[in-house]
Amino acid sequence: CLVYAAYMGLMYVLQDSQVFPGRAADAALVAQLRSYHPDLTDLTLTTPDGATLAGYLLPRTLPVLSAPQDSAAYGTAPAPVLLYFQGNAEEAASFFLWAPAELPRFTLAAVNYRGYGASTGKATEHAVKADALDIFDAFAARYPATPIAVMGRSLGAGVAAYVAARRPVSAVVLVTPYDSILSVGQAAHPLLPVRLLLRQPFDALPDAAKVTAPTLFLTASQDTLIPEAHAQALAAVWAGPKDFRRLTGGHNSILDNPDYWPFIRDFLTAVQNGAFQAPRQN
User: Which of 30-34, 72-76, 128-132 shows the lowest per-residue confidence on average (mean pLDDT)?
Assistant: First the structure.
């Protein structure tokens, strides 16, 4: 009994550091990214409670016809925005390792959670979700009339779902998503009363029923951290049209699958062009 009580106490005390371990910025990586992408800029946002959120923005433009069709005069307009919410062990700069080359027709943005990179404050479920709405609103003001899609990986999938349920996103990409962290945690620790211990359940199911934007689900066939059953439970109540894709790989190695970026690029391009059609569900 004492061992069990100590086990519960340890899990209760350590849970915040497990959900939000924090991640410092890698100065060498950021410098490397800037050398590859000179237009990569720092992005900061001050929250209503005074925290500073820091991230990165890579703006792109696309040519648009600015005169009658029989004229050769073209202008440019901001490319559709993809706003990325990272996994709990990621710093936002890591998104820009491959995304710029794989998604050349999109403006890319990623903002660190509190306590990650140069962002100040302490991350909690409540703070991260409120910040995500503020970030979306800041981009909507910065890029009026420009479609904004959201993408979330692992923990960030729940954040992306939260935004998609409350803001007019154009599309959603969810990588190794979950129904709830509570459900994932209970399955991983069957001997613990996780419901009583967990302070940050990240329940995405209520949000799933409110999302109407086209959505791409990407799961990993050998994911032992968030087994695919949790993504399937989320997809089962997802209200909007969806495409569910299973890739070989694990929770992190899914990023190395050769189909990972093509699936994302093709999906976002289809939505952008008004050509997305959800596969028939068996």
Answer: 72-76
Q: Average model confidence (pLDDT) for the chain?
A: 89
Provide the β-strand partners of residue 52: 46
Cβ count within 10 A of residue 259: 14
Tell me how many degrees the CA angle 125-41-64 measures, rounded to the nearest 5.
105
CA–CA separation, 187 and 24 (whole Å): 30
- The answer to whether the CB of 217 falls within 8 A of the CB of 231 is yes
3-state helix, strand, coil in the chain (%, to 5): 40, 20, 40
Token digits of residue 238: 């997802």
The confidence band for 192, taking pLDDT boundaries of 50, 70 and 90, is low
Q: Fill in the amino acid letter for 21.
A: P
pTM of this structure: 0.91
